Amino acid sequence: MGVERFKTVLLFGGSGQLGTEMRRRWTARFISPSQEELDITDAAAVESLIEASKPDLLVNCAAFHNVDRCESEPEQAFSANALAVNAMAEQCIRHNVRFVTFSTDYVFDGTRGAAYRETDCPNPLSAYGCSKLAGELLVRRLQSDAIIIRTCGLYGLHASVTKGYTFIDRIIAQARAGEQIRVVNDQTVSPTYAAHLAQAVEALLNSDPQPGIYHAVNEGAVTWYDYARETLRVAGIDHPIEPVSHTTWPSRVRRPAFSALENARLHELRIAMPSWQQGVADYIRDRDVTRP
């Protein structure tokens, strides 16, 4: 059963970067309550909504993903990213609803030195990564038809509630203002454009996939420094960028040094995602169209 056959989609986090693109691009009837309308950690309220709306598919894009706050508020992180996700998965089994939820590259420690596949062993370094891995494990223990999608460095046209801007926006704004730009060159990721991810998730669901974990990122691995350089190249801005170590910005959050992901299971299904470079180009093009 693919997206075309999912008549009603219950979408949590529908006003975020990814949820906005799903509502824009998928052909379905969406029920997407706001944070004010529904607290995803209220299992009884979530089940009442499932019973009332009778969806074919529940997509959970909601999460507590402020990594710094997760370190200081681990109980809230585990409540939203693990316990709430577990309750959703259990309720989907009870009401015969397909369940899709999202996880993160932060479940890995970054010591492999190459892009991680779905079969690689997680070892999170942060409270955020631990909470997301706990959510994965709780869902998988149910042995249902749930789909868990790990992604990395997500950015989109709809401003992030946590940051209010994307990395690309910040680099372009600093360059145009003539400011000094310093970017870390010792952390490698797979930055992913939300529009491309929404399309890949649709293609995955239309393939009638086996349950389990899938990686879905823009193809390739890049340091934040080289990502910034590509941003300015595409934007047509000539401005210097200084490469620095991540230790320049002390943080209580331990981040993996190399957390790029490989879309191994998508490749098996012949589902291709654009490169990270194409993600930058498409985002800047779409950004310029929607933000005059």
Provide a descriptive summary of the structure in words.
There is one protein chain. With 292 residues, the chain is an alpha/beta fold. The chain is built from ten helices and twelve strands. The strands form four sheets. It has a six-stranded parallel beta sheet with strand order 2-1-3-4-5-10. A two-stranded parallel ribbon has the order 6-9. α1 (17-25) crosses α7. The mean pLDDT is 92.
Brief overview:
By secondary structure, the protein is α/β, with parallel strands linked by helices. It has helices at 17-25, 43-53, 67-72, 74-94, 127-140, 167-176, 194-206, 224-235, 264-268, 276-290, and strands at 8-12, 29-31, 57-60, 98-104, 147-151, 154-155, 182-184, 188-189, 192-193, 212-215, 222-223, 242-244.
What keyword list fits this structure?
292 residues, alpha/beta, six-stranded parallel beta sheet, two-stranded parallel sheet, 12 strands, 14% strand
Strand line-up of the largest beta sheet:
2-1-3-4-5-10
**Amino-to-carboxy terminus distance:** 40 Å
H and E string? EHEHEHHEHEEHEEEHEEHEHH
Strand content: 5-15%
The assigned structural class equals alpha/beta
Strands, helices and their partners?
Layout: E1 8-12, H1 17-25, E2 29-31, H2 43-53, E3 57-60, H3 67-72, H4 74-94, E4 98-104, H5 127-140, E5 147-151, E6 154-155, H6 167-176, E7 182-184, E8 188-189, E9 192-193, H7 194-206, E10 212-215, E11 222-223, H8 224-235, E12 242-244, H9 264-268, H10 276-290
Parallel strand pairs: 1-2, 1-3, 3-4, 4-5, 5-10, 6-9, 7-12
Antiparallel strand pairs: 8-11
Helix pairs in contact: 1-7, 2-4, 4-5, 6-8, 8-10
